């Protein structure tokens, strides 16, 4: 049995333990396991925002030329790139993940004229599928081929496939796909890849360049800690930059936006994937988080993340006993993404009871209780304390209380 003291010893030897101090702790006594939803706030966010508010107050429109507002999408992309295994000029921070999925998928399809098939997973995050459904109103020849699980992807790739459009990590189970293997399989069929990294980036490696990935997108507000509704990001491998023609062409992607030419001329490299005016305050918040990431070795982050997940799973298994709790995520950290899912038939009620006991996690139907983990601010002892609270709630049956009966997924 693992004791609390064992976890304290792990914390004492953790090379990243000092980083937690760069995040606001939240409510006293509350344990937050929602890095898969809204990661913690960097402590210097208020200062960064104040500085940008002062610029807004004093510079007004001069902020566009005298401050760093306009460069933010590319500057922030450069700071994020090492964590994704990409070069600084291959990532821009902008828009939302849904919008970037649309931009990336449309661009990838255009690079494979004459091919109609898009291979994706039936259980991918719904917005990814809505994007294809929306794109089909412009291109009704798209043949969306959905596979039931990751195992079936390779067999579905054929010489009509334009794009393998995949989520690195399943949002209900945290099962992780092998970007390198599936990208090679897609390329062998002449297809391109578009990866949604939302439940992996900041937690597990993406190794985009080494994997040969073509396009990738993901959320800024989850493990990256960019704040609720943070700008998302887009990766495009450099070899595609000059060939890519944006479908959502906007003035910020123009080669010279301030010449106000009526003809669209794409900007250099990834600049052409920008659309409209960057959100200055949101970028300032995101940059506070990215500056923390820039100071850490991604390999240490990924190693600690795997160890936290392994520990949580072992603790859950040790205390599962007669509690009807099962591990819903892969046991092997190499096959897992950013969170650990535990399964319980009363999942939604258990999540609500956990919240009342000071453990913030999330539920996804039918029975998945998701613990989002952060190598930057979680301690090993947090895993122990959370499972101890869970054990108590299940043991005492607190989750069966009437007030939890109508709890829904949020
Ligand atoms: C895997 C995945 N993709 C896309 C999204 C949607 O991102 P956005 O709301 O930024 O469009 C989410 C949101 O949680 C997600 O989990």
Protein architecture, described:
The chain is an alpha/beta fold and 410 residues long. The chain has helices at 4-12, 45-59, 63-66, 72-84, 97-110, 126-135, 153-156, 179-188, 208-211, 280-293, 298-320, 347-356, 380-396; strands at residues 31-32, 91-93, 117-121, 143-147, 161-167, 192-196, 215-218, 233-236, 326-327, 339-343, 359-360, 362-364, 368-372. It has 2 domains: 4-32 and 298-404, Aspartate Aminotransferase, domain 1, CATH 3.90.1150.10; 47-293, Type I PLP-dependent aspartate aminotransferase-like (Major domain) (Aspartate Aminotransferase, domain 2, 3-Layer(aba) Sandwich). The longest helix has 23 residues, at 298-320. The strands form 3 sheets. Strands 2-8-7-6-5-3-4 form a 7-stranded mixed β-sheet, sandwiched between helices. Strands 9-10-13-12 form a 4-stranded antiparallel β-sheet, covered by helices on one side. Strands 1-11 form a two-stranded parallel ribbon. Helix 9 links the parallel strand 6 and strand 7. Bound molecules: pyridoxal-5'-phosphate. The site of pyridoxal-5'-phosphate has 13 residues, from helix 5 and helix 6.
Structure summarized in a few sentences:
The chain is an alpha/beta fold and 410 residues long. It contains 13 helices and 13 strands.
State the low-pLDDT regions, or none.
none
Straight-line N-to-C gap: 34 Å
Q: What small-molecule ligands were found?
A: pyridoxal-5'-phosphate
Find the structural class using helix and strand composition. Answer: alpha/beta
Report strand %: 5-15%
User: Quick one: CATH class of the largest domain?
Assistant: Alpha Beta
Query: Biggest sheet: strands side by side, in what order?
Result: 2-8-7-6-5-3-4
Average pLDDT = 96
How does CATH name the architecture of the largest domain?
3-Layer(aba) Sandwich
Q: Tally the structural domains.
A: 2
Question: Would you identify the CATH H-level superfamily of the largest domain?
Answer: Type I PLP-dependent aspartate aminotransferase-like (Major domain)
